[in-house]
Amino acid sequence: MGPEEKAWEGDQEKLAKWSLSQDGLVTTCHISHDGKYVVSGSDMENALLVCNVEDGEQVAFIRDYHRSTIQSCRFDPVNQRIATVSSDMSIKFWDIIARATTVTIERAHNNAIADCCFSLDGHYLCTAGWDENIKLWDVRTGEFRSHGPITLDQGHIGIVGCCDFSKDGELYRMTVLWHQQREKLRSGCLPDSRLKRFLRAIKLLLLYNSN
């Protein structure tokens, strides 16, 4: 039996009614914003698993969904699409209603993609990569198809391991975690002058593009 995916009742601090076993490591999971679905990725089968939160009923199981480990999976704000990123450098969008992959972006980065997140309004998908880059994809209009993503490549020396948007609803302030050689994981709030300039540039860029 492989590692388990479990649903917990947080208020009662006890195991809920169901758990599922997957082969290999469960590398990522995310619950939809309406609390109806949970999605997870595993490394041995590079599989995507979508279940109902209430009873654990399987909605979809797709073996070899990516060619390598799924590093991150996220529901969009309206709970219709699931974005996944992988060590195979690709991004995929799986549609809950269509039960199908609707978009695949190959070679989205030049190395493994570590994380992804949607902006609060679902306009952008942000991806963080081992190629030291953060990229912003306009998934609302699909503009990236003709003009590519916005690439933010001046803020890091080393792997970018995590990314997120603020929830203030006014400015998309991005916080990032990154790994520098011979140093521990650090956070974007540390007094690094280059990173401060980088974060200010992100604020201005995203504010401009959200208008």
TrEMBL record:
Coiled coil: none annotated. The keyword Repeat applies. Keywords: Repeat, WD repeat. It holds the Pfam family WD40. InterPro entries: WD40/YVTN_repeat-like_dom_sf, WD40_repeat_CS, WD40_repeat_dom_sf, WD40_rpt. The keyword rRNA processing does not apply. This is WD repeat-containing protein 88. The gene is WDR88.
